[in-house]
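Check out one such.
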Amino acid sequence: MNKNLLILSAVYLVFAIPMSFMDARKFRISLPSLAFGAICILGTRFGLFSGAFIPLLKNMAFALATSFLIYFSTRVLTAGGLGFGDLFFGIFSALYTGFYMNIIATVFAALLGVLYYLFLAAIQKFKKQQIVHRPIFAIPFVPFITAGSVLSMLLFWVIA
């Protein structure tokens, strides 16, 4: 396992885990904490991988642009079903994963979110009662973005 990626993952998880719990409990995230986390991720990335500044900068720009386009178009297509916090957290996670792994992370996040939704729907139908405080259609997505990002980077470590 690459030491630099381990350090980068630790910095990401310091911010991602509390944000995931906050989103799961309150359906909100702290944007100032997210901004500070983004600065820390960028500083860590450019500090650890300083030999490849221009390629890294291009990778980050593509990752940010594609993450914004994916999450913003999802927000528009779902009529606001995906919150702005999820959109900003998706961009934050793109800083961690990079361009290629961000696409995989987004697919993992979507699959995990759908599986969770189907699990809740099956339990609700089986018990014939609502088991969550909010309607079943409202699920926090930040935990799934976090899980998808971590899974994609684990996949990258296995491949690399």
